[in-house]
Amino acid sequence: MKNTFSCIDGHTCGNPVRLVIGGGPLLKGENMFEKRRHFLEEFDWVRKGLMFEPRGHDMMSGSILYSPSDPNNDVGVLFIETSGCLPMCGHGLIGTVTMAVEEGIITPKQEGVVRVETPAGLVTATYQKNGDKVTAVKITNVPSFLLHTDLSIDHQDLGRLTFDVAYGGNFYAIVDPQENFPGIHHYSAEELIRLSRKLREGINQNFTAVHPENPNISGISHILWTGNVLYPTSDARNAVFYGDKAIDRSPCGTGTSARMAQLFFKGRLKVGDSFIHESFIGSVFKGQVSAIVKVGGYEAIIPTIEGWAIKTGYNTIFLDNNDPYVHGFQV
Ligand code: PYC
Q1: pLDDT in tens, 160-213
Q2: Phi and psi for 178 in degrees, rounded to 5?
Q3: For this structure, is 13 an active site residue?
Q4: What is the pTM of this model?
Q5: 230, 279 contact by CB (below 8 A)
């Protein structure tokens, strides 16, 4: 038995996006969160086959499009990653909207604005075009908030570390430079991955993070380390760890949202301020705090994140049961 998937490959500011436009499974559910649950129960082999080696790699990330459950919206998106199915993925959405609009796969009801149902909630994506090319996508993300400040933990290699926890579509532990951590500019990606794995394990053994309106969104899945910028025009730089072996090559949309929530609630950003956020490789998202709302008793910001994506090619992928690695592998 051989399953065939039609994909468009690309990247958002350096981080991969594999948009599945044919072969994705039909999913049951009233909304994208329920469809995500059905996918994880019955079709996770699709994610593993398309994301892991030998068809993908440690950073691979993608999406599958569905009809929206509310006819006022344009599309539903399921995010597939090496780490699972994230409730929300900012770089994934910027790439998905870029490629789907360029290819005429999404025709939004209102030109220039795509209303997207994600498992984490409704996200609006506004895009700019030059001819057939989408040159920039600005997403208005889900409410993002600071959950904990100044937690601390003993890290096996670094010693005592203090961190904050914020939500931007996923939960992030944010580690700023401090006595036992001089900043990301002192580390390689490999070193940060090794340090992150141990830190994430320790944090989740000792602390909880649960979304106040959707208790199924829980757990601190990502670590956002900070440090010196590469370019003087940037406000901050990060290294976001996700999955088991990935440092985001983009500035990370949900991470930038969580970082802006942290800075806003610590009095270092105001409504209307822009926030130029650099990735580990130096690519940039432009963030902004656009409004303040309440989410389940928490004050939250509505962040906007602007970035660009490029289509790199068309890819027809087989998941063939005769292949011993049909469901991929990780080393
Ligand atoms: O851009 O939100 C993001 C993201 C999450 C994991 C990798 N990228």
Answers
A1: 999 999 999 999 999 999 999 999 999 999 999 999 999 999 999 999 999 999
A2: -160, 180
A3: no
A4: 0.98
A5: no
Distances 327 to 19, 45, 244 between C-alpha atoms, Å: 18, 6, 17
- Residue 171: predicted pLDDT: 98
Q: What is the spatial distance between Cα 103 and Cα 110, in angstroms, rounded to a whole number?
A: 17
- Residue 282's region, left for phi above 0, alpha for psi from -120 to 50, else beta, is left
Question: Which residues have CB under 8 Å from 104's CB, separation 6+?
Answer: none
Q: Is the CB of 252 under 6 A from ligand 1?
A: yes
3-state secondary structure of 323: coil
Other residues' Cβ atoms within 10 Å of the Cβ of residue 188: 12
What ipTM is given for this predicted complex? 0.99
> Using 50, 70 and 90 to split pLDDT, how confident is the model at 28?
very high
Percent of the chain residues past pLDDT 70, beyond the cut: 100
| Active-site option among 7, 13, 85, 89 | 89
* Known active-site residue 85: no
Say yes or no: CB of residue 89 within 6 Å of ligand 1.
Answer: yes
Inter-residue contact 20 to 6 (CB < 8 Å):
yes
- Judge contact between 280 and 263, C-beta under 8 A: no
Cβ of residue 51 lying under 6 Å from some atom of ligand 1 = no
Q: Whose CA is nearest to atom 8 of ligand 1?
A: 252
Q: State in Å: Cα 243 to ligand 1 middle.
A: 10
Cβ-Cβ contacts under 8 Å for 51 (sequence gap 6 or more): 18, 60, 61, 62, 80, 81, 82, 328
Is-contact 289 303, C-beta < 8 A? yes
**pLDDT tens digit string along 92-122?**
999 999 999 999 999 999 999 999 999 999 9
The answer to whether residues 72 and 231 touch, using CB atoms and an 8 Å cutoff, is no
